[in-house]
Model the fold of this input.
Amino acid sequence: MKAAPEAQKRLLDLAELDAAADRLRHRRRSLPELAEVEERSKRLAQLATQIIAAETEAGDLGRDQAKAESDVDAVRTRVDRDQKRLDSGQVTSPKDLASLQSEIVSLRRRQSDLEEVVLEIMERREAADARVSTLKADRDTVTAALRESEDRRDASFAEIDKEGAEVQGRRSTLVADVPADLLGLYEKLREQSGVGAAMLHGGRCLGCRTSLSIADLNRIRAAAPDEVVRCEECRRILVRTPESGL
Done:
């Protein structure tokens, strides 16, 4: 392949721009804010699950408490009814009196047991409600932190994208002056190794950092200035400059 020396030298500028673009893409992928956003998003999802579980527990305890209180009210009503019968003097049979008194004692014992159950459920419900409040406070804190991370991420994205657009603009201007066949070879090599062209500096390929053999250097010395030469080691385009050591 033939190409004017100046056109070949433009490949070095192109390679520099492409390397800058690669660095920007890497920077965009490895922003610390991305890890923060992912971590805090996972934490929010975890909190959402925990809040649902805690609210479900609190709701279940609320229903249990209502049922237990209803049972207490029912027993209390029966105790009051039986006590009124007892106090009214309507029951005169000793056997019926003994039975009624025994029932009242049993009902009051049952009422006491049920009231203990209500108190236990109330304590558990208060603990569940407190856990819901704590989890929601944690959710609000993490949400605020997530929004802050997202804002910083988006600001970094905007800065990187602006730099990337500038690099792409300069690249578009530059490739307009590179022959199509030379550019095609450069792009193909770049796809294969990430770098399509490298400077020959002091007898060394700066693409793979390999020092060329005497035979390779003699071959390059003998090549016409417009001949496109390649590194025998990495196959990149070797661009000759006054610093090539030829």
